[in-house]
Amino acid sequence: MGINCLRTDIHNELKHLAMDEDGAGPPARLHLGQEVVLCDPVEGKLTMKNGEIHDADLIVGSDGIHSVIRTSVLGYEQKALSTGISTFRCLFDAAKLENLPDMEWFTDGPLTFIRRVTSPEQRLGVLGLHPCRCGKVINVVAHHTDERDQDKHEWSEIATVEEVVEQLKHFHPRYLNFLKLGEQPIVRWQLRALPLLPTWINGRTALLGDAAHATLPTLGQGAAMAFEDAATIGCLIPMGTHREDIPARLEAYQSLRKARGELVNRESLEQATIPSKRGLWFRSRELRTVIHGYDAVEITKKYFKDHFEGAT
Ligand SMILES: Cc1cc2nc3c(=O)[nH]c(=O)nc-3n(C[C@H](O)[C@H](O)[C@H](O)COP(=O)(O)OP(=O)(O)OC[C@H]3O[C@@H](n4cnc5c(N)ncnc54)[C@H](O)[C@@H]3O)c2cc1C
């Protein structure tokens, strides 16, 4: 069974863990509104939009699907490619479900389980209702074939309820009733994927999360992989690591993480775009075991012990 968390809740918890005075180690400092425009990955220099230049022993490019650091690591710009798939997302308060007709398919049973309805048609149509905060808030996602020229549109746009209903009109009306409850903004996100990259590292700089392996949310593993990447870097580069040791630690990071990130990247894309593979994530216990049965911290600690113990 999966546990659903709202992004804001995860961010708040991460901030608390990283920045609280009584946490492990010195509290991290967060500088908001600071845009990186350039990076020298080998020397470890970051140039900010305001002209400041910062020196670093280690640069972790966790700047998402549109990563600037990725361009510096690769030496060329690699955009995430359009897939012809988009998704609508919105939230609503679960209390509003009371007294709404034809919602038994959703409200019968615990309000903590994901409900997922797929379209029987060849075109992609997936409607997911994900209860969060113990069933108090419902997160709605609706993946659909996007017949627009995606490159001519913004990657995320505000959508109207009418546009959503038009896209989902092939679903039985009982699955669409909750749309009356959706709270603005409803956002239409283009779902894009990065091709596999030749490298995730360069000198003292590494890519992490979507910057390295942005893909579709078919397996629901994008953020999970970013957490695993981060845990791996954390275990390989503990406090006190010498500057000159960083490049070798990042080689280790790449050898531990790249194949796994790429597996999730490719499967997420193929299971959305190849009709015979649709739904494989839910049918294949083997694949779910490969993904869920992996302990990035334990594996990295063992790797560290075998390769670097005593070196720090
Ligand atoms: C519709 C949808 C549904 C999803 N569902 C799931 C799911 O169910 N489960 C799951 O695990 N994943 C899911 N994902 C994927 C998940 O959201 C991403 O994989 C995850 O957010 C990646 O985290 P990240 O830290 O790498 O990047 P991001 O979350 O994109 O964070 C990047 C950060 O870098 C900052 N930044 C960007 N450029 C710069 C710059 N130049 N200078 C300074 N800062 C910069 C941004 O402001 C942002 O704060 C979904 C994604 C989408 C689009």
Automatic annotation (TrEMBL):
SUPFAM superfamilies assigned: FAD-linked reductases, C-terminal domain (SSF54373), FAD/NAD(P)-binding domain (SSF51905)
All copies of domain FAD-binding, residue ranges: 54-266
Segments crossing the lipid bilayer: none
Gene Ontology molecular functions: FAD binding; monooxygenase activity
Cross-referenced Pfam families: FAD_binding_3
Alphabetical keyword list: FAD, Flavoprotein, Monooxygenase, Oxidoreductase
InterPro entries tied to this protein: FAD-bd (IPR002938), FAD-dep_Monooxygenase_BioMet (IPR050493), FAD/NAD-bd_sf (IPR036188)
Protein family membership: Belongs to the paxM FAD-dependent monooxygenase family.
Protein name, entry field: FAD/NAD(P)-binding domain-containing protein
